[in-house]
Design goal:
The N terminus is likely disordered. With about 300 residues, this protein is an all-alpha fold. Helix content is about 65%, strand content about 0%.
Length: about 300
């Protein structure tokens, strides 16, 4: 299908960039958003104007890609993207639209992600895409709709499965930090549980993270906190407590067994976190090893770095 045919379906379809709008125009727009909770107005917060620009770009370009490709079969869309989109700027706008699609249109997330993959690889824009992802997690996460937060996990999980050479360390670390920022506790528990499940399903790919990666210690601190705060989780009434803890405990054990040298970045805090987990049955053998044969955990490790 040619571009003229696609545009004939929707002659008003265009791609937009947020920089076409002044801050005053942004403030005049309705407060409704596809990505953000009702009545959230990022543009009224000077410190989040970059995030506001990004949200505007994602949502505006999402409407454009729905108009252009909404009724097209996936194979037809990807063929068009592969054969016709070579301008990096146009590709960036399309990627923004498809990224928004992943976040707001969960039933069609696979289709949107396939289009992202097609464009980002062919135009070498994965780093730009991950920059947008990091802005969302660092600046917008507390204000995003619950369903969109869940889809952020889908996006980064699917990206990990691609096994690209792109370093995903900061993106995964930022998710952990976003989940530690004190937003609605019940909602956070649900997302933490889903995050742990996703990590378990692809935990073998964690070996691709670089040495001294910041993700393993940040993830261990996050999950161990929720394991230890069992009473708070129980009070939140998220789900059966043991069902909630099971994937978190499993991923923590994997991190200790497979990425212990990275966890040493936590210093004495690692000892405190492990101490809080000492009554968890899966950590009893780990503690025996730490006390009686610590060198097994990491080369030249004797326990002094965390115990004293």
């Amino acid at each position: 299908m040619t571009e003229s045919e696609l545009l004939t379906r929707n002659p008003q379809s265009t791609l937009h960039t947020p920089h076409q709008h002044s801050q005053q125009q942004l403030q005049q727009q309705p407060s409704t958003s596809l990505l953000l909770n009702p009545n959230v107005r990022l543009e009224s917060r000077p410190e989040t104007f970059t995030a506001s620009n990004l949200i505007n770009s994602l949502e505006t370009n999402y409407h454009s890609i729905v108009e252009r490709f909404g009724n097209s079969p996936l194979i037809e869309t990807t063929q068009y993207l592969t054969n016709n989109i070579i301008d990096p700027k146009e590709a960036k706008h399309l990627i923004d639209g498809f990224l928004c699609g992943v976040l707001v249109d969960a039933p069609n997330a696979d289709k949107h992600f396939t289009c992202i993959k097609t464009l980002a690889i062919s135009t070498d824009q994965w780093m730009s895409l991950l920059t947008s992802f990091n802005i969302l997690t660092l600046e917008c996460f507390p204000f995003m709709k619950h369903s969109c937060k869940q889809q952020l996990l889908y996006f980064i999980d699917e990206t990990l499965k691609l096994q690209l050479r792109t370093n995903l360390d900061s993106s995964f670390t930022n998710i952990c930090r976003a989940l530690s920022d004190g937003t609605d506790f019940k909602e956070t528990c649900q997302i933490v549980h889903q995050f742990a499940h996703r990590l378990l399903s692809s935990h073998q790919k964690l070996a691709t993270f670089p040495r001294n990666s910041s993700f393993p210690p940040t993830a261990f601190a996050l999950f161990s906190r929720f394991i230890s705060d069992a009473q708070l989780v129980a009070n939140a009434g998220v789900m059966n407590l043991e069902s909630f803890k099971a994937p978190l405990v499993e991923i923590c054990v994997i991190l200790v067994r497979e990425r212990f040298p990275d966890l040493l970045q936590l210093g004495h805090d690692l000892f405190l976190l492990l101490l809080r987990l000492s009554r968890v049955s899966q950590f009893v053998p780990i503690w025996r090893t730490l006390l009686h044969n610590p060198a097994v955990m990491a080369p030249k490790f004797n326990g002094k770095k965390i115990f004293f």
